[in-house]
Specification:
Rossmann fold, seven-stranded mixed sheet, 14 strands, globular
Length: 377
């Protein structure tokens, strides 16, 4: 269960020495102080092609905070939601507006929105908790008011390159989506490549505004890859894979954590090749740790099936709750101060820390996509 926090009533007893000899005053019950309200903003795409993603993030966040609010006497967390349509300028505008009254921002989505919100967060001294993005600028000491919960893009890429090396898949074809998302992962690939000298890497860049899947397929087929590493979103990845299948059999496919979603699984249902994914959370379907069980209960309460995205959103909301309840005050400065000095946050068996390198978590794992469209963690 999510920890319940309460404030004990203040017992006030005034008894003089003389009165004590003759009688005892009746017990006086003083009501507990009313819970203070903490405004939190969430800016995600609720319209446009990523609306389904933003709606799941928002639904799980709201359900987790509502669950906390039901029994909390220490604080009530009021969530205000904004739709940025996954547009950087809109996200900047809304974040600048939101930090005027919000004490924290939670679970921005993707590099486009998170990088924009980070600027407004830093300028206002408002903590940005749980960006759902792996870009390097969103973590570390330089990200003064940003507190990542998930592992970094570097950790994801290292997990996938290590897997390819271990499996002897030395010829690697890499598809890079040419925008902030794809380029952030490609930059980590460039940094890590020297650590995996056995790998021969060929890459193709895909313009998301005018994608030429045939060209990317031809570019990468020329390198005769034993494995494909897709640094593109689910929509572009599946269309690329469809174009490849029209030309020949697909090799083993490696995917980033953001592709392990229902959209990818639905579009690739019946795919009999091997597709593996890095993940930045434990399995959302297992029940080994408290966080898994609590997330599943909350997801069920709002009619959502468990997913990696939903579980990550839940963990981010839990990190926010931890900060609000443990900081001495709910003001933005106090939240930042507490997070900066928090050695370890236990979110129900999943831990993050912001002391030292301020990277949050380095947890990564692997999952497989099965032909029936489900994931095996």
């Amino acid at each position: 269960m999510i920890p319940r926090f309460s404030v004990s009533p203040l017992a006030v007893t005034a008894i003089t020495g003389a009165a004590l000899l003759s009688y005892a005053l009746p017990a006086q019950s003083v009501p507990a102080p009313a819970a203070h309200s903490v405004e939190v903003a969430q800016i995600v795409p609720l319209s446009g092609p990523l609306a389904n993603v933003g709606k799941e993030v928002n639904t799980i966040t709201r359900a987790t905070l509502d669950d906390f609010n039901k029994s909390s006497r220490a604080a009530q967390i009021v969530l205000k939601t904004y739709d940025d349509g996954n547009a950087a300028d809109k996200s900047t505008q809304l974040a600048t507006q939101a930090v005027g009254s919000a004490q924290a921002l939670v679970s921005c989505f993707g590099s486009v929105g998170c990088m924009a919100q980070q600027k407004a967060s830093a300028a206002a001294g408002v903590p940005l908790i749980g960006p759902i993005a792996g870009a390097a600028p969103l973590r570390g000491k330089a990200a003064s008011t940003t507190y990542a919960v998930r592992a970094s893009a570097a950790s994801e890429v290292a997990r996938l390159l290590g897997f390819a090396t271990t499996m002897g898949l030395t010829e690697v074809g890499v598809l890079v989506q040419d925008d902030g998302f794809g380029r952030s992962y490609a930059a980590e690939l460039d940094k890590l490549a020297a650590s995996y000298p056995k790998l021969k890497i060929t890459r193709s860049t895909l313009n998301p505004a005018s994608a030429d899947y045939g060209k990317s397929v031809a570019d990468l087929m020329a390198g005769q890859p034993k494995v494909l590493l897709l640094m593109a979103n689910a929509a572009h990845s599946t269309q690329f894979m469809t174009a490849w299948k029209a030309k020949g059999a697909l090799p083993f496919v490696l995917n980033l954590a953001g592709q392990a979603n229902a959209q990818f699984a639905s579009r690739m249902k019946g795919y009999v090749g091997a597709a593996a994914f890095a993940t930045v959370t434990p399995s959302p379907w297992e029940t080994k740790i408290d966080a898994q069980r609590e997330y599943q209960r909350i997801a069920k309460s709002v009619g959502l099936a468990p997913s990696y995205l939903g579980f990550e959103s839940y963990l981010n909301a839990r990190a926010l709750i931890e900060a609000v309840t443990q900081a001495k005050s709910s003001g933005k400065a106090e939240l930042v101060r507490w997070l900066d000095n928090a050695p370890r946050l236990d979110l129900g068996g999943y831990s993050v820390s912001y002391s030292g390198d301020k990277l949050g978590s380095n947890f990564t794992d692997m999952a497989l996509l099965l032909p029936d469209g489900t994931y095996r963690h």
